[in-house]
Amino acid sequence: MDDLLVRAEIATGCDALALEREMRERLQARLGVRPRLELVAQGTLPRTEFKAKRVIDDRDLYRQGISRELT
Fold first, then answer.
1. How far separated are the first and last CA of the chain, in Å rounded?
2. Is the dihedral of CA 43, 47, 52, 53 positive or negative?
3. Considering only CA atoms, which of 3, 2, 34, 1 is closest in space to residue 20?
4. Does the pTM of the predicted model rise above 0.70?
5. What HEC string does the chain produce?
6. Which of 52, 49, 69, 55 is nearest to 7 (CA)?
7. Distance of CA 68 to the CA centre of its chain
8. Which pLDDT belongs to residue 7?
9. Which one of 9, 52, 53, 70 has the largest count of C-beta atoms within 10 Å of its C-beta?
10. What is the distance of C-alpha 65 from the center of its chain?
11. What are phi and psi of 60, to 5 degrees?
12. In which residue ranges of the chain is pLDDT below 70?
């Protein structure tokens, strides 16, 4: 099964448990998958200076396909 990891920054003073529950419910309702959420402190995630890479496909199947294409 594929796994969806969502990392998001949380502002100081926010209720992390309530935010996580709300995010999980909305993402599951919208996408139809149950995501793994990782809430981190504000300013933790790196900022992009160039065009953002918003989707990282880290599945073994994807990596195997890419390595075959390069050889």
1. 27
2. negative
3. 34
4. no
5. CCCCEEEEEECCCCCHHHHHHHHHHHHHHHHCCCCEEEEEECCCCCCCCCCCCCCCCCCHHHHHHHHHHHC
6. 55
7. 26
8. 92
9. 9
10. 22
11. -60, -40
12. 1-2, 52-54, 61-71
